[in-house]
Amino acid sequence: MEGPPHLRADFPTAEEPETQSALQRWSTLREAIGEKSPLDLSRSDALVALARRPGNEPLDGAPGSAARHPGSGGAAPLEPARAPAPAATITVGVAAAVRAGDLLATDPVDAARPFVLAGALPGQTVIGVAAAGDDKTAALALAGRVVPCHADATTAPIAAGDLLVASPLPGHAMRAPAVAAPGTVVARALEPLSGGTGTILVRIVTQ
């Protein structure tokens, strides 16, 4: 069915609206009625970014999907998100086998070499906790993510909420001193460890 003449006349042909995305059609209609205020796409962008989180497959018709609009004859997919959510991990090279929960740091001799297990050594810079790993690479958890971490409470118990730094025990984190040096804090404990060593949940932080 043909639309109102004062709207349909704004398209070069009667078929063109069906070959445009919903956003394109809405923008054209707004121009036709003289609406010039910018569109607020913040909510739709947020929904698209949520759908693009790791592990979420794109739905038919969603940005990134190969699906087409029914009856469009090959219409373009919807507008992609301008700022997709960042991934929860980043892959880094390691010098030896790494397990999930290991605390990683730069090589104390040559910071340009693959990362090694942190051990509170002079010249090391702690970079974070491995969410997964093997003998060549590790998935380094980014700030804000909650992951298991190997912890060392042999010298001081760890309470939930404590800040953590590298322990002398390779790959482990321990309770931070009252005044931690800048750049040494790697995580905040979400679970306690009264003594010895173990694995606790932590939230990755930078400080």
Rounded to the nearest angstrom, the radius of gyration is 26 Å
H/E element sequence: HHHEEEEEEEEEE
Helix count, DSSP H or I runs of 4 or more residues: 3
User: How is the main sheet built?
Assistant: 5 strands, antiparallel
* Unreliable parts: 1-17, 55-86
Structural notes for this entry:
There is one protein chain. This protein is an alpha+beta fold. The protein folds into two domains: 79 residues, no CATH class; 115 residues, no CATH class. It is 12% helix and 23% strand. The protein contains three helices and ten strands, in the order H-H-H-E-E-E-E-E-E-E-E-E-E. The strands form two sheets. A five-stranded antiparallel β-sheet has the order 1-5-4-2-3, with no helix packed on it. The longest helix has 11 residues. The termini are far apart.
Based on the model shown, name its key terms.
207 residues, alpha+beta, 2 domains, 5-stranded antiparallel sheet, 12% helix, elongated
Topology:
Layout: H1 5-8, H2 22-32, H3 42-51, E1 89-93, E2 103-105, E3 116-117, E4 126-133, E5 137-141, E6 146-152, E7 163-166, E8 173-175, E9 187-189, E10 197-204
Antiparallel strand pairs: 1-5, 2-3, 2-4, 4-5, 6-10, 7-8, 7-9, 9-10
Summarize the structure.
The chain is 12% helix and 23% strand.
